[in-house]
Amino acid sequence: MTERSFGSDRGSTLPLYIWLTAIILFVALAFFAFAQAAVARSGAQSAADAAALAAAQDSRDELLDGLIEAIENGDDGDEDGDDNQDGGWPDWLDGTDFEGAGARGAAEALAADNDSSVTGFGAAEANGLPGYRVEVRTNYTVGDSIIPGTEAKHAKADAVAVIEPRCDIDEDADPKKPVELDCDGDLIEIDPEDFDPDDLPDASTLFAVHLAE
Fold first, then answer.
1. Which residues of the chain have a pLDDT value below 50?
2. What is the extent of the structural domain holding 100?
3. How many Cα atoms occupy the beta-carbon half-sphere of 21 within 13 Å?
4. pLDDT of residue 10
5. Structure confidence at residue 75 (pLDDT)
6. For 124-130, which contacts have Cβ atoms below 8 Å and span 24 or more sequence positions?
7. Which of 26, 52, 83, 181 is the most interior residue, by most CB within 10 Å?
8. Terminal-to-terminal C-alpha distance of the chain
9. Can you give the pLDDT at residue 109?
10. What one-character-per-residue DSSP string does the chain give?
11. Per-residue model confidence (pLDDT) at position 13
């Protein structure tokens, strides 16, 4: 009687084991699906960050080119000159006078490098600093999972990158004469009368580019 009872108990617990195994398997697959989505989302955010930074860096290079051209053309802010900036060449140090003609192309190139596409692009401002907002979508999908529709779902993300001027100049400085810039501790002298573009540091010394907080 004891042996029959033991066999009966074993037979009745078998469906319970199968049921528990199925639940554990389902939960494991669900966690795997969420992990897939998290990885895709992380990839999209990385692509958005890189694209926004690339756009801002492109405009930073434009600012450096504009500064060099303004100094070489003798843009000192005189009213009788042919200048397009009230303060002359020092105005370029404000980090705002850029057109951004190549910014979107730079963003699209970096997004493509991260297997994503730019779906939204535009000028943006954060904490009073100019920059760009970029929206991207991954070219790849989340992938097959137990959650219906993930095989066709793309991850999306957006990011904002800004350009921050790093150099201070004495407000009484004469743009026609040698001027000293303090770029976060790096001292740079610009002499409009004896100017060599190679004397200027890299654009990153004059302007910082970073993601908006």
1. 1-2, 6, 81-85, 144-146
2. 2-211
3. 6
4. 54
5. 81
6. 124/160, 124/162, 124/212, 125/162, 126/160, 126/162, 126/212, 126/213, 127/162, 127/212, 127/213, 129/95, 129/162, 129/163, 129/164, 129/212, 130/95, 130/96, 130/98, 130/162, 130/163
7. 52
8. 74
9. 98
10. -HHHHHHHHHHHHHHHHHHHHHHHHHHHHHHHHHHHHHHHHHHHHHHHHHHHHHHHHHHHHHHHHHHHHHHHTT----TTS--SSTT-GGGGGGS-----TTHHHHHHHHHHHTTEEEEEEEEEEETTEEEEEEEEEEEEE----SSTTGGGPEEEEEEEEEEEE-EE--TT--TTS-EEEEETTEEEEE-GGG--GGGS--HHHHEEEEE--
11. 72
Q: What is the pLDDT of residue 64?
A: 96
State pTM to two decimals.
0.80
